[in-house]
Amino acid sequence: MIDVPTMESVSTTERFEKLSIFYPMWNEELYIERALDAGHRAARGLLERGDIGDYELIVIDDASTDRTPEIADRLAAEDPRVRVVHHAKNRKLGGAIKTGFESATGDLILYTDADLPFDMAELPRAVRLLSDYNVDLVSAYRFDRTGEGYLRLVYTFVYNLLIRSMFGVKARDINFAFKLCRARLFEHVELQSEGSFIDAELVIRSTRLGFEMLQFGVDYFPRTRGESTLSSPGIIWTILREMRELRSDLDAIEALRKD
Predict the structure, then answer these.
(1) Mean pLDDT of 202-216
(2) Mean per-residue pLDDT for 89-109?
(3) How far is CA 155 from CA 38, 64, 109, 197, 231, in A?
(4) Which domain does 193 fall in, by range?
């Protein structure tokens, strides 16, 4: 894994046929339009630079009970580059992320949250780093997390320490919702988690198979509308349960043979 310092953005030497950006959403009526607007701006910039040939934005509506499905369907009707996948039943974060990766049609895929936890202007930099360093996965970490409160800061520190000690993965801020992946990675990676452990599972499976990950830092913008449930006791318990249940499977992974 590579940890990269701040650099100025320059055009990438590799051109991707299509970028897919997907957003897992549950009751995000306050954020959905802003999230898609930011995605459009970043993707259009990549189009203009010639880094991608096309793009799509995918809303994974995880059985929302507010106006998220209605707004998503309207935005999709207005723009052919927007697609919506509706879950009939709530499948939690893991289920929504799995649907997102399965639904993406691009050779480059970005997963992120609807509450805009980072500036989408960072995306061209991430694409360039993925290309220049010839890696399969770019994962961002937050420079400063104190804006979301010290309790969640402690949770994150302990969680990353657990992942490092149990699985030997030296990743910073492993659960941050900024994962840029080459689609070919999912020819070999099959995610199992239905909860918030899925970010760590993606990194663990990928790196143990021999795919290379690069990390870089971004400014963090905490949620200003609605509420996050990621620090609730139920979510934390589910993460710990999935860590235990999947450990033997993850420990058994062997690196792919390189011809």
Answers:
(1) 97
(2) 97
(3) 29, 27, 28, 13, 8
(4) 2-249
Does residue 258 sit within a domain?
Answer: no
Cα–Cα distance for residue pair 253/168, rounded to 1 Å: 13
Indicate the number of domains in the chain.
Answer: 1
| 185 domain-assigned | yes
The two tokens of residue 232 are: 């609730």
Position 259 in a domain = no
Q: Find the mean pLDDT for residues 45-69.
A: 98
Phi–psi pair at 106, nearest 5 degrees: -85, 165
Contact of 31 with 225, CB cutoff 8 Å: yes
For residue 108, what are the contacts with CB-CB under 8 A and spacing of at least 6? 16, 18, 19, 20, 52, 127, 130, 180, 181, 182, 183
Is the residue at 129 inside a domain? yes
Closest by CA position to 17, among listed 136, 105, 137, 123:
105
60: domain CATH number is 3.90.550.10
- Largest Cα span, the chain: 51
**Average pLDDT of the chain, as a whole number:** 90
How far apart CA 86 and CA 89 sit, in angstroms, is 9
Instruction: Judge whether 54 and 42 are in contact, CB under 8 Å.
Output: no
Q: In the prediction, which pLDDT does 235 show?
A: 81
- Residue 11: predicted pLDDT: 47
SS3 86: strand
Mean pLDDT of 42-47: 98
Q: What is the share, in percent, of the chain residues with pLDDT greater than 90?
A: 78
